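Milestone 3.1: sequence recovery, worked example.
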């Protein structure tokens, strides 16, 4: 029992071989991790492209909802039942528009706000007028502008490059 057999002796070549196997395994694991990271990046880029394409297709629909909500006919001269039905229809369109806006927001599609400042990166001048006013909404995903907001700009306050 106290004797050492040949199996107990470590051979120098087996340690070298073990180190080579270990290094190969570590390289394979690192390659696999790099591949996973690269695939995740490609997936995210594809998701962003799909979101942008979807947004481009949804914007005209959103414009139509905006026009429907903003152009309510005068119903004072029509029958009461027609007026009631029209108001319900208007509320329905308004509700669908709100749902649509919520869904777009959840997809990361944001409306560009038109505040007191003209920003040439976010706004497009449609015409000059007395005050800064939005003609059609602009939209963006993150920092990427899908469509600039078309605005009426104060002809005296700001030049077309956004300088005062």
């Amino acid at each position: 029992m106290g004797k050492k057999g040949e199996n107990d002796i470590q051979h120098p070549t087996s340690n070298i071989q073990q180190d080579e196997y270990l290094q190969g395994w570590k390289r394979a694991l690192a390659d696999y991790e790099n591949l996973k990271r690269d695939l995740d990046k490609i997936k995210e880029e594809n998701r962003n492209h799909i979101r942008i394409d979807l947004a481009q297709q949804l914007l005209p629909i959103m414009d139509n909802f905006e026009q429907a909500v903003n152009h309510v006919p005068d119903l004072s001269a029509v029958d009461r039942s027609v007026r009631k039905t029209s108001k319900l229809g208007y509320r329905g369109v308004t509700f669908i528009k709100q749902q649509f806006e919520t869904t777009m927001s959840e997809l990361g599609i944001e409306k560009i706000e038109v505040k007191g400042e003209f920003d040439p990166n976010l706004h497009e001048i449609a015409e000059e007028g007395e005050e800064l006013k939005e003609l059609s909404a602009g939209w963006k995903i993150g920092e990427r502008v899908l469509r600039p907001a078309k605005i009426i700009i104060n002809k005296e306050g700001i030049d077309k490059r956004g300088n005062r």
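The two ends are 97 Å apart (CA to CA). Strands lie at 109-112, 123-129, 133-136, 138-141, 144-147, 149-154.
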